[in-house]
Amino acid sequence: MTVTVPNHGLVLVLNCGSSSxxxxxxxxxxxxxxxxGLIERVTDHATGVAEVIATLEGNPQISxxxxxxxxxxxxxxxxxFTAPTIIDNDVERxxxxxxxxAPLHNPGHAAGIRAAREAFPTIPHVAIFDTAFHQTMPPxxxxxxxxxxxxxxxxxxxxxxxxxxxxxxxxxxxxAMGADVRQINQIVLHLGNGASxxxxxxxxxxxxxxxxxxxxxxxxxxxxxxxxxAVVAHLGRAAGMTIDEIDDLLNKHSGMLGLTGYNDMRxxxxxxEAGDHAAKLGLQIYYRxxxxxxxxxxxxxxxxxxxxxxxxxxENDDLVRLNSxxxxxxxxxxxxxxxxxxxxxxxxxxxxxDSRVQVWVIPTNExxxxxxxSLAAIA
Length: 379
Ligand code: AMP
Description:
Helix content is 40%, strand content 17%. The protein is α/β, with parallel strands linked by helices.
């Protein structure tokens, strides 16, 4: 008797937040998702998941009997989870425990996983962790120069995020180059509302700009990225702010929003073009931070074959791509203005033919990658 392994079938991809559920129903054999939706103002996740199911069942083109697996996006997997993981009660408990490291994300994920496992008790559930791809970083990349005892006691280290995207995009870049991912060194710039850079050597993450949480590194829509940690103590002492107020300031009222009044890059460019000085300065800060990380990771890698832009800003904003890498000709990085112009919906080479480092735009698709990895995990 032969056992058939499901390497296709429908995948329900869930991204459960504290008060929202984003979902996609994906058949990996077709390009577009069969259904995409967002349930907001979720007060209890069982009701939210029931609403997702009711919406899908109300669609005559969809048959949930073909559902093969539910893939759950989980932001924080700590140093425990290094790969997609089939969820059992132990895994569910670990995700709950990791909420100490990701209080804004993991509680919502855990509640969503519980509700979805109850709604689909006979179907496998797989957790896909944003941190997993970065578990290959060496200790000198992930260790902060903090008192060792304090760091160990509280699991303080760089974890890195956007790993599903960095992994997918680095492999897709190698494919587009006709190269073996194991043979090349890359920098991936995931520039969306959240943003991070990743140094990838031979297909493995060796450094990344986000840290214990997704706050560190590049300037983002509403997050500071790198900042002197003494600012936190200073605001506590000098401004009398509480820890929660400071956390809120750094995560939700800073970055491009704090600098310019706009968190969407389209609005920042429009303001800059209209002569707004804060918007112009904000863009210079944004570009400079990216350029700094490119130089840093170039030096760490020693040799660089490719740089890839991805996510909402990286795929759509030709000015960000052009200005962030301007003046790097001496490093072998030369953008071709014509190739770079416009929004990119497909893998596109944007460097000139005499650029030693190839520069690409590769559209990311985290939900699809979660679907592919979920199917692979149960195969
Ligand atoms: P993401 O988090 O990957 O969905 O990216 C969302 C961000 O992409 C938005 O906040 C915008 O700043 C940016 N974005 C989307 N479309 C464009 C565009 N056409 N030009 C410039 N930036 C864009």
